[in-house]
Amino acid sequence: MSPYMYTSSVPVFKQLLNSLSAILTKAEALATEKKFDQKILLDARLFPDMFPLSRQVQIATDFAISVSARLTGVEVTAYDINEQSFAELQERISKALLFIDSLTPAQFEGSETREIVLRPDTPKEKRLVGHTYLSTYGLPQFFFHVTTAYAILRHNGLEVGKGDFMGVY
Q1: What is residue 80's predicted lDDT score, i.e. its pLDDT?
Q2: Under DSSP, is residue 77 helix (H, G, I), strand (E, B) or coil?
Q3: DSSP helix/strand/coil, 115
Q4: What is the pLDDT of residues 60-83, one digit of tens each?
Q5: Does domain 4-166 fall into CATH 1.20.120.450?
């Protein structure tokens, strides 16, 4: 059994979801300290046509779950997109961490060659083998949304640096 697909995904998702959780804790504390509505940060975005912070977190958790699920052949769990507070976003991150923690390295066996079908039966259908799916689609999407969440908060005055983004590794 090759643990490559497991070690290239699950620990990475866990590391950055935990760092995202820590950054959100700092953001909530900033709103409390400065006495402004947390919704200001939750709705913040880098540019008007981009998703706000709350949606960036939702999408990041969705990718951690869906990539792991597809690689292991487990049904993709869809969560409602209705978080309106930092506490609710933290709960969403916790659910994602619980899901990926439930997966074992053995479940990833053979996933590097498993066919992954994105947007099936649509004009945008795409078929990828597991390794390509993880390295060129799943991880880059996940990194994009975690990075954008970090950038939104940094842009709005949260004092965080690369160490906060990286978290514990």
Answers
A1: 86
A2: coil
A3: strand
A4: 999 999 999 999 999 987 888 899
A5: yes
pLDDT of residue 124: 95
Alpha helices in 53-85 (DSSP H): 53-72
d(CA 57, CA 53): 6
Q: If DSSP codes are grouped into helix, strand and coil, which group holds residue 40?
A: helix
Question: How many other C-beta atoms lie within 10 A of the C-beta of residue 154?
Answer: 15
Please check the confidence at residue 1 and state whether its pLDDT lies above 70: no
The amino acid occupying position 142 is F
d(CA 95, CA 157) in angstroms, rounded, equals 28
Task: Return d(Cα 151, Cα 39) in angstroms, integer.
Answer: 17
Domain ranges of the chain: 4-166
pLDDT bracket for residue 2 (50, 70, 90): low
C-alpha–C-alpha distance, residues 85 and 128, integer Å: 36
- Is the C-alpha dihedral spanning 52, 57, 60, 65 positive or negative? negative
Match 């039966």 to its residue by tokens.
121
Considering only CA atoms, give the Rg of the chain: 17
CA 93, 96, 102, 108 torsion-angle sign: negative
**Residue 128 host element (H or E):** strand 126-129
Q: What DSSP designation does 105 have?
A: G
